[in-house]
């Protein structure tokens, strides 16, 4: 991934992305915008939509159709607010706020309906012909191990009690910052922290 002045390189090819490196992107359906947290789009030196993986968050002010992403697998969870329901094939499902995110195909017809105001969701996108993976939101105390060729850990609300052990290093992730790395990561978190953990391995 290309690194600019807002991205700090660590040993072993790890990167920490600051909030300033995020960028606002319009929804494909034109009904809102998304804050792109991390992506490999820059590595292609091509159009902004040339990514093969992407992590983003979005405020959802009103009921709306999801944008379609053919050939993409998606995961979604609720980060803030009272929650959100989505409709798929005439079945309504409430998004998880912790644990494994809800997965679905980018080609599906999906409607999102926020419950109350100030609803924000997090989304993990993987090009299906390149990657397989998953995403979860961690809000509890304990340790977890994640392995993958791409691992993205975003500190939604990161306290001093959360530590990421990777490549022989112990890393603290500040609120709003994001670690992009690979291989094997051990995450120790406390109940004061909210972390988004996404991963992918090549097919």
Report the strand count: 19
Mean pLDDT, rounded to whole units? 87
Q: Which regions have little confidence, pLDDT < 50, spanning 5+ residues?
A: 1-12, 44-48
Distance between the termini: 20 Å
Strand content: over 45%
Q: Can you tell me the CATH architecture of the largest domain?
A: Sandwich
User: Which superfamily, in CATH terms, is the homologous superfamily of the largest domain?
Assistant: Jelly Rolls
Compute the CA-based radius of gyration.
16 Å
Q: What's the order of the H and E elements?
A: EEEEEEEEEEEEEEEEEEE
Percentage of residues assigned to helices: under 10%
Overall body shape: globular
* Main sheet summary: 9 strands, antiparallel
Task: Please report the number of helical segments.
Answer: 0
Structural class estimated from helices and strands? mainly beta
What oligomerization state is this entry in? single chain
Q: CATH class of the largest domain, please? A: Mainly Beta
Query: How many domains is the backbone divided into?
Result: 2
Task: Return the CATH topology of the largest domain.
Answer: Jelly Rolls
Give an overview of the whole structure.
This protein has no helices and 19 strands. With 203 residues, it is mostly beta strands. The protein folds into two domains: 22-130, Jelly Rolls (Sandwich); 134-202, Jelly Rolls, CATH 2.60.120.10. Strand 1 and strand 2 form a beta hairpin. The two termini are 20 Å apart. Residues 1-12 and 44-48 have low confidence and may be disordered.
């Amino acid at each position: 991934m290309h690194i600019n002045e807002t991205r700090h390189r660590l040993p072993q090819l790890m990167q920490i992305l600051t909030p300033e490196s995020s960028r606002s992107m319009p929804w494909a359906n034109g009904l809102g915008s998304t804050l792109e947290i991390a992506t490999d789009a820059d590595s292609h030196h091509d159009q902004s939509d040339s990514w093969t993986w992407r992590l983003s968050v979005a405020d959802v002010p009103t009921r709306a159709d999801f944008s379609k992403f053919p050939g993409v697998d998606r995961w979604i969870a609720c980060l803030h607010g009272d929650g959100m329901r989505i409709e798929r094939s005439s079945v309504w499902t409430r998004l998880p706020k912790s644990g494994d995110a809800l997965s679905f195909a980018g080609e599906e017809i999906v409607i999102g309906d926020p419950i109350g105001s100030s609803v924000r969701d997090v989304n993990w996108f993987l090009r299906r012909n390149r990657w397989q993976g998953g995403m979860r939101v961690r809000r509890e105390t304990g340790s977890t191990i994640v392995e993958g060729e791409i691992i993205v850990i975003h500190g939604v609300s990161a306290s001093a009690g959360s530590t990421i052990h990777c490549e022989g290093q112990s890393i603290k992730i500040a609120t709003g910052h994001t670690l992009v790395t690979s291989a094997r990561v051990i995450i120790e978190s406390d109940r004061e922290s909210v972390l988004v953990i996404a991963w992918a391995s090549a097919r």
